[in-house]
Amino acid sequence: MADPKGFLTTDRQTPKRRPVDVRIKDWKEVYEEQPFAELQKQAGRCMDCGIPFCHQGCPLGNLIPEWNDLIWRGERSEAIDRLHATNNFPEFTGRLCPAPCETACVVGINADAVTIKQVELRTIEEAFNNGLVTPLPPDRLTGKTVAVIGSGPAGLAAAQQLTRAGHTVAVYERADRIGGLLRYGIPEFKMEKSIVDRRIAQMEAEGTRFRAGVNVGVDINGVELRNRYDAVVLAVGATNWRDLNVSGRSNKGIYQAMEYLPWGNKQGLGELESQPPINAHGKHVVILGGGDTGADCLGTAIRQGAASVTQLEILPRPTEERPANQPWPTYPMIYRVSSAHEEAGERLYAVSTEEFIGDGAGNVKAIKLVETEFINGKFEKVANSEREIPADLVFLAMGFLGPEKSDLITQLEVELDERGNVKRDEKFASSVEGVFVCGDAGRGQSLIVWAIAEGRSAAAAVDEFLLGETGLPAPILPTSRSLTV
After folding, report:
1. Distance CA 274, CA 283 (A)
2. Which class for 462: exposed (0-12), middle (13-18), buried (19 or more C-beta within 10 A)?
3. Among residues 263, 238, 77, which one has the least CA distance to residue 153?
4. Residue 458 covered by a domain
């Protein structure tokens, strides 16, 4: 193990966030760099348990005690090798994953868990800074070709694994730049896009080919694509957003979160010649949805100079301690404060939107709310609890309902399951031979760590389909379910 007494003598310490009054004036990441010596002490808190339950919390099967020990010893090169053995993109998960591994940490039973996520992030950043992340092109080519549709974390993981196995891989992305949700859904203050760009550069050097600005199903027919490639991997995500059809929904000023966040990213990167078409500056903003996407909208609106921001959640305010029905090592629903929540805004719980109130000219001006109680498995209105709050701009951040029912899905004639996801078997294969699916498109809306794990597993399945056998690791099966999701 690392420091035999580390978990007893060292308190949990995470990196400091930049002062609120400073960070809201720019779009840079909010965390300050933690001195490496402090990080080593944090890694030394790992107990190297006989049964490392942190593995139960991690779909990727990250070798957490091993690289904790290596970082504590200062062996950076060996640490990144162990981390990359299970995770293609620890710089993404280290910033964006909610760290179910930490809620499964054995130290966390009766003390503060090990800062696994931060050790992971700093391990990969140390590796990049010291030239330890280099392209790994294949020794030989197989002559087989694969098309990956979608360049989010699942698609990128599948593409990198298949490229390294020797296949010729082309990644198609309908947006104008590669990265999918990583580029257009994650705000710059959570992950600067240079982080995505440097990994894309590595993949290009390895041989992966990228085709941005190509809408497969429109620009290229799905059948034509299937005939051109030996295998196709669908990694199109779950972008069919949930709407709220209440009175006044047709008023202007009501947008889906994913209609708004890409413009914030473009603004933060200086890619716009003028103000973004959806701009919170000087407006009273209301966000429907209390999750991470809602918090992303919150932080973006604050940086644009919103007059006020209110985030609504239909569920009651979570407790700050584990609920009795969510014991260790499961991922508990507790009250969490993101960096955006520290900056400004109000959070309202146990409320439901009754009506979007217009100004008479077709624009939203307020929201009518009612308090709710969860009784006998459903939400009930609290009598005489209606009220209005001002709303010049409303963002719907209420989750997604599976992949879009696009022309591509129709052209490929793949079957869908009862939830609207692309149906697949234990080998990630769809109902159409040679067409595979991974990530949210097959699993439904989930975590980035699941997306990467599914991309790696799907790559192994495709490799076996093409060659009859595979040496690629497959961390999970598509039927896997975890209490941490």
Report:
1. 18
2. buried
3. 238
4. yes
Mean pLDDT score, 471-477: 86
Same-domain status, 359 and 375 = yes
Does the residue 135 lie in any domain?
Answer: no
Domain final residue pick, 396, 420, 443? 396
Total domains in the fold of the chain = 3
Angle between helices 292-304 and 257-268 (to 10 degrees): 50
What pLDDT is stored for residue 376 in this prediction?
A: 87
Same domain membership, residue 220 and residue 119: no
Structural domain range at position 370? 254-396
Q: For residue 25, is it within any domain?
A: no
- Looking at residue 481, its pLDDT comes to 44
For residues 380 and 311, state if they share a domain.
yes
CATH number of domain containing 44: 1.10.1060.10
Is 23 domain-assigned? no
Using CA atoms, how far apart are residues 17 and 33, in angstroms rounded to an integer?
A: 9
Q: Do 264 and 227 have their domain in common?
A: no
**pLDDT tens figures, 122-177:** 999 999 999 999 999 999 999 999 999 999 999 999 999 999 999 999 999 999 99
Verify that 196 and 98 share a domain, yes or no: no
Chain segment 70-128, per-residue pLDDT in tens: 999 999 999 999 999 999 999 999 999 999 999 999 999 999 999 999 999 999 999 99
Residues 362, 287 share a domain: yes
Q: Which residues touch 207 (CB under 8 Å, ≥6 apart)? A: 137, 138, 163, 168, 169
The CATH number given to whatever domain includes residue 314 is 3.50.50.60
Give the max Cα distance, the chain: 71
- What's the CA gap between 269 and 285, in Å, rounded? 22
Overall pTM surpassing 0.90 (yes/no) = yes
- Give the burial class of 238: count Cβ atoms within 10 A of its Cβ; 0-12 exposed, 13-18 middle, 19 or more buried: buried
